[in-house]
Amino acid sequence: MRIRNLIDVIPPKERAILVAAPRKGSPDAAKIDEHLEELARLVDTAGAEVVGTLRQQVATSSAATLIGEGKVEELAKLVFETKATLVVFDEELSPAQGQGLEQGINTRVMDRAEIILDIFATRARTHEAKLQVELAQLRYMLPRLTRMWTHLSRVRGGIGMRGPGETQLETDRRMIRTKIAMLADKLADVERHRRTIRAGRSPMLTAALVGYTNAGKSSILRALAGDHDVFVEDRLFATLDTLIREVDLGENLKVRVSDTVGFIRKLPHHLVASFRATLEEAGESDLLLHVTDASHPEWEDQMATVDEVLDDLGLSDHPTLIVFNKLDALEDPTGFAESAHARWPDAIFTSAMRIDGLAPLKAALRGKAEAIRPVVRVLLNPADGKRLGALHRSGDVLGQALEDGMLAVTVRLEPWRAEQLRREGVTVL
Ligand SMILES: Nc1nc2c(ncn2[C@@H]2O[C@H](COP(=O)(O)OP(=O)(O)OP(=O)(O)O)[C@@H](O)[C@H]2O)c(=O)[nH]1
Ligand SMILES: [Mg+2]
């Protein structure tokens, strides 16, 4: 689609200036440097080079340009001096603010949400992730069409080229709305399909890795499953597509672990909306593994962000195991573990980079798997082939032997199934 390409990819070697303009006295204002650093990583991931930064604590934000008039001039000067081709705001800009700023500095302006959308657009691989990103992009674009058209005339380089007339804009808006409805339909289909697949899977403990981007979720899955095809990278949003692996925990215990997109501060709400189905799938799991990078200076804020997103998804009460990862990268891992343990008594401490660094996690998962499907002994009439077959299908049969004329089946079984057998008059020990 013609318009979509506009925000698809930032052309290589864009020269970006980063702007942080939090409200004076807000919590964000105390963390300007940290936030700019994260924005720099996002911009780098999107493929642009950072050539300057600008900070302002805004007392009253301007509806036209967010930052004050004097600051806009300063920004224009900085753009000129650094030959910047792009200005990226850490704050979300309203469509009017984006347009006002572009007019003021005569350079393309993006906000954090747009950069994240851009990264997602270049990284989505599966059909579903692509649909979700495209849907989020179109929803983001709809109120900003006039501005997008300005970029188009610039890209085409036509001097004096004007934006489209109102009729053209209306046509495009209609086209985008139709496309949004179509994508939403297609996504609903994909989700239905996924539910069918899920329903057909064999019963097993399921755990979903969630956490801030770059915390090491995929590294943990890779190490647990011994699967080197799991993609790991020291970049933000390395993973966009849900990946599921069965992990053998030993002692006849297994867990099905899923890994999906990471969270970030100010995750664009269009993205959360589009990825809702993917993220909510985490809620179908028995357990969330909330992974935190213990070596990151902002780990506490990152945990809080993850909690907010989980809350937003209605998952804040879901059984969750806190996993502090990258302990190997800490100077004093013991000290860290002790103080974190005081606040999160059940937390697990891991390193995906060390041999046996995941042993504590495996042990915890074994405990959960045990609890979910304890081993029981079922005494069957040897002629009861039907029940024996059902046991093999619904549980993990560990052994069977004839005892006093009865067939004693040792089996790992969900408690409700054991209960059902008892109700049918079968002895379950
Ligand atoms: N030192 C150290 N580095 C780690 C550890 N676990 C992961 N990393 C590194 O951290 C970076 C990010 O790891 P990923 O596994 O891709 O992180 P993720 O949470 O899946 O990130 P997203 O997919 O972007 O959300 C990579 O460079 C890993 O090598 C660890 O235990 N110790
Ligand atoms: Mg990942």
Biggest sheet strand order reads: 6-7-5-8-9-10
pLDDT below 50 for ≥5 consecutive residues: which ranges? Answer: 154-162
Distance between the termini: 63 Å
Rg over alpha carbons: 26 Å
Bound molecules: guanosine-5'-triphosphate, magnesium ion
Number of helices: 15
Assembly context of the chains = single chain
The tally of structural domains comes to 3
- CATH class label of the largest domain: Alpha Beta
Using the 3D structure, state the CATH architecture of the largest domain: 3-Layer(aba) Sandwich
Helix content: 40-55%
Number of strands: 14
> What is the 3D form?
elongated
Structural category: alpha/beta
Walk me through this protein's architecture.
- The protein is of the alpha/beta class and 429 residues long.
- The protein folds into three domains: 4-124, Rossmann fold; 203-371, Rossmann fold (3-Layer(aba) Sandwich); 373-428, Alpha-Beta Plaits.
- The chain is 44% helix and 19% strand.
- It has helices spanning 32-45, 69-82, 95-105, 112-123, 127-141, 145-155, 166-199, 217-225, 269-274, 276-280, 299-312, 333-343, 359-372, 385-394, 415-423, and strands at 14-20, 48-55, 86-89, 108-111, 205-211, 243-250, 253-259, 287-293, 320-325, 348-349, 375-380, 396-403, 406-412, 427-428.
- It has a six-stranded mixed β-sheet with strand order 6-7-5-8-9-10, with helices on both faces.
- β6 and β7 (253-259) form a beta hairpin.
- α4 packs antiparallel against α5.
- The longest helix has 34 residues, at 166-199.
- 35% of the residues are buried.
- The model is unreliable at 154-162 (pLDDT under 50).
- It binds guanosine-5'-triphosphate and magnesium ion.
- Guanosine-5'-triphosphate (GTP) binds next to α8.
